[in-house]
Amino acid sequence: MGGWAIAVHGGAGVDPNLPQERQEEAKKLLTRCLHLGISALRSNIPAIDVVELVVRELETDPLFNSGRGSALTENGTVEMEASIMDGPKRRCGAVSGLTTVKNPVSLARLVMEKSPHSYLAFSGAEEFARQQGVELVDNGYFITEENVGMLKLAKEANSILFDYRIPAAGLESCSAGAAADSPLVMNGLPISVYAPETVGCVVVDSEGRCAAATSTGGLMNKKSGRIGDSPLIGSGTYACDLCGISCTGEGEAIIRGTLARDVAAVMEYKGLDLQGAVDFVVKERLDEGKAGLIAVSRDGEVACGFNTNGMFRGFATEDGFMEVGIWE
Q1: By CB count within 10 A, which of 1, 11, 120, 163 is most buried?
Q2: Residue 55: which pLDDT band, with cuts at 50, 70 and 90?
């Protein structure tokens, strides 16, 4: 074992004109979350506890698209989803369609530990949350004025917006015609802007135990009931005795490629190291999709890969390495 390691992400795909102020805000949040995780790991907190702790912090801050500040559905409401996985015994929990649960990742963990199931969604998940006594808030808590404005732009453009926080000036070309001319598509349909901001964390602790967690509000102007990759074990999240992975990006492409599980599979069956496995799946499993992922191995390695122009990310290892970045 090579000691503990942690990686966090705030989404793959970044507007090249993203204001410097926004970039610095993102880096500060990622750095804060890294320090939170580092402190826990130095206190010998298990990996599964650390990923939950860090993702809760990301859900509480409205900067990225999870928890408070989540993207809005076409109906102007929030439907959140999350998953968590503990590598040693491949235990997992996932939730979708949450509208009142303040921290979806913690409900996902309760599904894993306090129910006979792996996945609960919509009214069933909300009822389970009430039974478990988790903190509930009104749906309006998750909605920000900025999101409301971006939903309006998305509806005017008649398209899905991935990065709903790009300043309005950067969306002047977002019209129905502009969307039709976009070279970016999802399942054959044009989109205007590519910059999802799902959050995730992967950790290996000093005992070599890997864990992963992912949380998101999904796509701005998505259809009510849409489920992406983030709550799907093996697609957006995966952990086993070898590694832990959290993905972000075009959910439909990640689902088709079972991206997270494939990293572990090529490590196991091809004998690739962590970075080699990450590079392989990003190149070979996404087809024309756009996405990225972070990963840790039981040997204390960290890795990331993405085929977008950038990914909000941060890493730290027990030997003192620490890095926070956005661009390639």
Answers
A1: 11
A2: very high
Tokens representing 247? Answer: 């993905």
Give helix 259-270 / helix 274-284 axis angle, nearest 10°. Answer: 130
> Measured in Å, how far apart are the chain's first and last C-alpha atoms?
29
Q: Most distant CA pair in the chain: distance in Å? A: 55
Q: What's the burial of 276, exposed, middle or buried (CB within 10 Å: 0-12/13-18/19+)? A: middle
* Residue whose token pair is 């993203």: 18
Closest by CA position to 136, among listed 52, 74, 67: 67
Separation CA 63–CA 69 (nearest Å): 7
Secondary structure percentages of the chain, helix, strand, coil, to 5: 35, 25, 40
State pTM to two decimals.
Answer: 0.90
As annotated, the binding site for substrate includes 226-229, 248-251
Question: Tokens representing 23?
Answer: 């970039």
* Residues 1-21 pLDDT 10s: 689 999 999 999 887 888 899
Kindly state the helix (H) or strand (E) to which residue 256 belongs, with its residue range.
helix 251-257
Looking up tokens 């999350």, which residue turns up?
Answer: 82
Instruction: Give the DSSP letter string of 151-217.
Output: HHHHHHHTS-BS-TTS-GGGGTT-SHHHHHH-S-EETTEE-SB-----EEEEEE-TT--EEEEEEE-
Contact between residue 260 and residue 235 where contact means Cβ atoms under 8 Å apart: yes
Q: 3-class DSSP state for residue 252?
A: helix
Binding residues: 226-229, 248-251
Taking the C-alpha atoms of residue 85 and residue 201, their distance in angstroms, rounded to an integer, is 11
> Positive or negative, the Cα torsion across 151, 152, 153, 159?
positive
pLDDT digits (tens, 9 = 90+) for 67-76: 998 999 999 9
The residue type at 28: K
Which amino acid makes up residue 224? S
